[in-house]
Amino acid sequence: MKLAYGRVSAKDQNPERQLIKFRELGVDERYIFVDKQSGKSFDRPRYQALRLLIREGDLVYMDALDRLGRDYDGIIAEWKYITRELDADIVCLDNEALFDSRKFKTMGDLGKLLEDQFLSMLAYVAEQERKKNGQRQAEGIEVARANGVSFGRPRLTIDQAFIKAYDDWKAGLITAAQAMRQAELKKATFYRRVKEYEEEMTQVIKDS
């Protein structure tokens, strides 16, 4: 059976480019799984649903290796689990020459060795890209804070109380409700400010 997995890093990003490829390959819509969140963790609902569905002989399409994830050890572990423990196959469409597990399987032990080498190399690159993006985001946030970020409709001033609450919430140290109390904001205002703050941070990163 053909299955496909797509991923984008944020809810406002569009995975349609990936979906078009999967449809052109004849993957049934029921078996296309898409997450809209970071690839740092593999605890993604749609990926976990796909994982439970995979059976021996299935073929899983992905647009690129970094759609699977951006954690070095996790990428390797998940690839081997699918291709060796479940005995299914994976094809990464952006580089089918290197990342089509069916080709490696026909080469026996040598194929496993080559697959491990290529996989380790690209998994490492994927993780380094994630770390670089995280660093750029942190740097962009610091620059924006130093310049006194404010937002429109009407423009909302981002004070230190909100920034501290936001950071603690995003780090998983407090719940959203606790962050609202800490920032002394009502729910609607808090989420509006979060949205505008993150939009501004995204623009700062693009401009950096």
Descriptive tags:
208 residues; alpha/beta; Rossmann fold; 4-stranded parallel β-sheet; elongated
CATH architecture verdict of the largest domain: 3-Layer(aba) Sandwich
Coarse structural class: alpha/beta
Helix tally equals 9
Multimeric state of these chains? single chain
| Rg measurement, Å | 21 Å
Unreliable parts: 150-155
CATH superfamily of the largest domain: Resolvase, N-terminal catalytic domain
Residue fraction in strands: 5-15%
Question: Could you tell me how far the N terminus lies from the C terminus, measured between alpha carbons in angstroms?
Answer: 44 Å
Question: What features would you describe in this structure?
Answer:
This protein has helices at residues 16-24, 45-53, 65-68, 72-85, 101-105, 108-146, 160-170, 176-183, 187-207, and strands at 2-8, 32-36, 59-62, 89-92. With 208 residues, the protein is of the alpha/beta class. The chain has 2 domains: 2-129, Rossmann fold, CATH 3.40.50; 148-207. The chain has a 4-stranded parallel sheet, sandwiched between helices. Helix 1 (16-24) links the parallel strand 1 (2-8) and strand 2 (32-36). The radius of gyration is 21 Å and the shape is elongated. Mean pLDDT is 79; it is low at 150-155.
Provide a brief overview of the structure.
By secondary structure, the chain is α/β, with parallel strands linked by helices.
Helix and strand layout, with pairings?
Blueprint lengths: L1 E7 L7 H9 L7 E5 L8 H9 L5 E4 L2 H4 L3 H14 L3 E4 L8 H5 L2 H39 L13 H11 L5 H8 L3 H21 L1
Parallel strand pairs: 1-2, 1-3, 3-4
Helix pairs in contact: 4-6, 6-9, 7-8
